[in-house]
What does this fold into?
Amino acid sequence: MKKIIILFLTVMSLQIFGANYRVTGNKLTQKELMTNNSEIEKEIKRFFTEDYIEVFKDELAKRTGGYEELEKAYSSLGDKYISEMEYKINEINYLSDKKANVITELKGIDFERLDVEKILDEKNVDNKLIKELFSNLSKEEMVEIFQMDETEAEEIVIKKFLPHLIEVILEEIDRVKTYRVDKIELELDKINGKWEITAEN
It folds into this structure.
């Protein structure tokens, strides 16, 4: 009877300090679990608010091709993604007192589900772009643009078109609220008394 009561109290205590996630595979005392859970939560928070954001921004920076306007555009989209990003811990699975697997969920804007071509058609962006590009040009300047090589023409289109395109996409994101949820598994090791993420799956 005494063992059943102790087991019941242990399960209840796990639910209380485990709060919104499960804690499994442990042979730690309640006090050790509370301490380790708290430290793991801090490391997961650090990962999503520092490391993940840094990697995300670095990946966006690689796609700019050296164009300042493209850099600004990706930066606006990146800032929007980060401002809407949410994460949560689903489970902490202790493999030992110094090793744990943590299952998390990351909710963020699903850019892939945005139908950019449809947005452009609905907002009449193509016509606005043409008007913006050519409304203040003389015939000689227009001829000059059509004689430019592909790289020069691309630069002009990016400078003129991108700011308006990003503005339209950001408006559409606010309107449709399209998100995706990804499961991310993290491996943590306790190194020199401190929990650190050592692998991401």
